[in-house]
Amino acid sequence: MKRFATIVTLAALVLLAVFLLYPLALVLDASIRIDGTGGLTLGNYAAIVKSRYYLGSIGNSLLAAALATVFACAIGIPLAFCLARIDVPGRALLLTLASLPLVLPSFVSAYALVLLFGHAGVVTTALRGIGIPIGSIYGLPGIVIVFTLTLYPYVVMPVLAGFQAVDASMEEAARNLGGSRPYVIRTVLLPIVMPAILAGGLLVFIEALENFGVPAVLAEDRPFLAIDIFKLFAGESDANPAAAGALSVLLIACTALTLLVQRHYLGKRRFSTSARSAPAKLPLTPGLRLAATTVSWGIVIVSLLPFAAVLMVSVLRFRGPVLTWELGLSNYATLLSGSYRPLLNTLTLASIAAVATMLIGAPIGYVVARHRSRLSGLLDFIGMVPFAVSGTILAIGLIIAFNSGPLVLTGGWLILVIAYVVRKLPFAIRSSSAIVHQLDPSLEEASINLGVSPTTTFATLTVPLMASGLVGGLVLVWITAASELSATIVLYASGWVTTTVVMYHAIEGTGAGLAAAAAAVLILVTAIPLLLINRRLNRQQTTVI
Amino acid sequence: MTSIRIKNLTRTFDTVRAVDDISLDIKHGELFTLLGPSGCGKTTLLRMIAGFADVESGSISFDARRIDGLPAHRRDIGMVFQNYAIFPNHTVAGNVAYGLKARNVPAAEIKSRVDKALERVRLAGYGPRSPHQLSGGQLQRVAIARALVIEPAVLLFDEPLSNLDAQLRTEMRIEIRQLQQALGLTAIYVTHDQEEALAISDRIAVLRQGKVEQVDTPERIYRTPQTAFVAEFLGSTNMVPGIAGAFDGRNTHVAAAGTEFAVRGEIAPPGAPVLLSLRPEALRLGDGSDGPRIQAHLTLREFLGPMQRLHATLPDGTQIRISALGAQAFDVLPGASLALAYDPAQIKAFPSP
């Protein structure tokens, strides 16, 4: 078994070194080279610091992420509290729906905002028609709204777990000692769930900072870090890989720092195992209960409305860029008339990536959970690095690394799969090590003791016991790979256009109907498998976050 | 029938010697218990025998055959785990058959052996059930059947009863003892519960900080403990420090707790500090017999049904416990003066640490 652990650890480290650390090192290297000549310089960083445009870009990104974090906490904490402590009607369904925005593509939500409130949006036009002008949703306001509505589950899940982990007797003790209910909430409950709030909030911050799709749809010409990195690297006219590298390094520095702080707070989540009896639901007056119900359902429905709007718009006819109220499948006809290829590519690439990610991630998760050593600790740490690296930056690194030299991957499908696998590997590792943690190690020892060799025990006992959990992980990786945009947009080649790429170009151009159809396809592709296994997923997301 | 020889076994975790140069000889057919507080190394020693902890130095042999080099799955040992370790994805019969399948026993023979094993642990007919339908005590029986059915050379028990409630615990330990004797298996049993150890063992090894303090039969371990630790660990004794005085040819007089005790034999030179172990049942309420006595004051009486525990104060304020039969001394009230008689032969003295 030790040999198995060492082999897995070394193989995983080599894999991560080649496809994660090496590309990232090249991005860092590009950031300290003079473009063209290749000499060492810090000039790229100096140029950024001197440029009002790039400082604005960094400022906008940080501000949007910070505001999104605050708002996500502002709606996520009360929602978590209601789910944990108030008898909200339809609680189970609400819980499932509340986790949906995490896996539905956020840029689809952004696009829905454009369809509704954009320059030619349905609502904008209608309101303008009756003489009420509304402000622009482009730029910061729209981006913050979408981030808030799509990322708040990152706060809800851990905070909900936190509220439920507070043992009933803790609160009863505080009440017994003479604390009023609000006093107890302030002095006992909130301090206990604080680490969960911080952990969830910081995750929102990281995701918002890295996100490419939402600003791509909503930023218009305002500078945003993720967009500028992409444009500087892949732009037709003003490409500047050195500046792209420098901005990437700054972005990674921000996310990595946040991730370290986040992990630090997660490490303090000692309360999560202490609850013996979950606290009782609060007795509320009918009025207050109605208010709580309205708020909880309201938050979840508002966050899902954009997706519903996209589905609806996708079956309406467009006349040029203008939406009509005629029903029809013309958008889908346009989407599929060109070729089935993008949809097929999406399904194929996601499937290969999901299977590969779990095949690689599950043994790593097992080793990390079962065989603690310095080497597996290193693996655990490096396995978390992809969390701090946005898809765009990883993709840029992969292109620099595998555009020439002994291993040329650019232009094919494999580089897309590699990007998906590397990006989703932390999730696969986390979820499988969480499963392994729930398996009693003496089960494997009993099997070995009864005469079955360790390798056979792993294959015939451990893997089947992990299987049900692994299926959940597989589906989640599949979904997120199918709706991946930030790395795909950098890496795709002509034969390997995916649905997300079609949608991106349709938004950029004038294909409003085409974009709506592509977005609807993405929603269906992601939501259907999710709903099929949602009970399993709820558990997993909580453990993974 | 297998005898076990453990020679100079050592295992270090970081800087802690979990198992420190332990040597033991376990006779065939013996139920041998490793007893000690948590962290004494008993579980590590058991896991070294099972092959789940590496042997740093020393050797383990079954009869004349060294087994410490064998991988865990080839040692032919049956093990009963603390938390049962019943495979949740197999039925009860599947669990019991697991080790037989690993040994490529023909299917027909597996069925009859599984049935017989389940019958032995009084679970006949439970074969097709799923483990989650069984209670804790039943799961424990499945675990025992699973370990027995492979007819192992040696049976290991790792605190098998610690997850059961008190009544089930006393029932199961009798069952385990009867099964082990009926099958004539050599068994090593790990526990931190001294009563359990005394009740079922042929011999007990008391472990402390990775070392063996004493190996003996339950009676001798209890009556003639070799160290203060053994005396204290078995049967909540009263430990009273004192100074040895003169030896009168029969007893040594020890000044302790503001009074004087007579201890059989010459236990220490005069003036040497000693520790006296006064078993609660070795002190009797004045029963008219002659022999030495000490004076004490009753502070609290716990009535426990068949017996009662008296808490008393010796002249210098030292608290001691005395066990008396339940019917005795009902008229004594707290504050009353007690005359406690004892037999000097029942008081054990240890050199003061």
Task: Describe this entry's structure for a reader.
- The complex is a heterodimer of chains A (545) and B (353).
- Chain A is mainly α and 545 residues long.
- Helices cover 76% and strands 2% of the residues of chain A.
- Chain A has helices at 2-31, 43-50, 52-85, 91-103, 106-117, 122-129, 140-151, 153-165, 168-176, 181-210, 213-218, 225-234, 241-267, 286-314, 330-338, 341-370, 374-388, 391-402, 414-438, 441-449, 454-482, 488-491, 499-508, 512-532, 534-544; strands at 316-319, 322-327.
- In chain A, strands 1-2 form a two-stranded antiparallel sheet.
- In chain A, a hairpin with a 2-residue loop joins β1 (316-319) and β2 (322-327).
- Chain A is globular and about 65 Å long.
- The relative contact order of chain A is 0.14.
- Chain B is an alpha+beta fold.
- Chain B folds into two domains: 4-232, Rossmann fold; 236-351, Beta Barrel (OB fold (Dihydrolipoamide Acetyltransferase, E2P)).
- Helix content of chain B is 24%, strand content 35%.
- Chain B contains eight helices and 20 strands.
- Chain B is elongated, with a radius of gyration of 24 Å.
- The mean pLDDT of chain B is 90.
- Classes of the chains: A mainly alpha (545), B alpha+beta (353).
- The A-B interface holds A 440, 442-443, 445-454, 457, 461, 464-465 and B 50-52, 71-79, 81-83, 85, 87-89, 98-99, 102-103, 143, 146, 150.
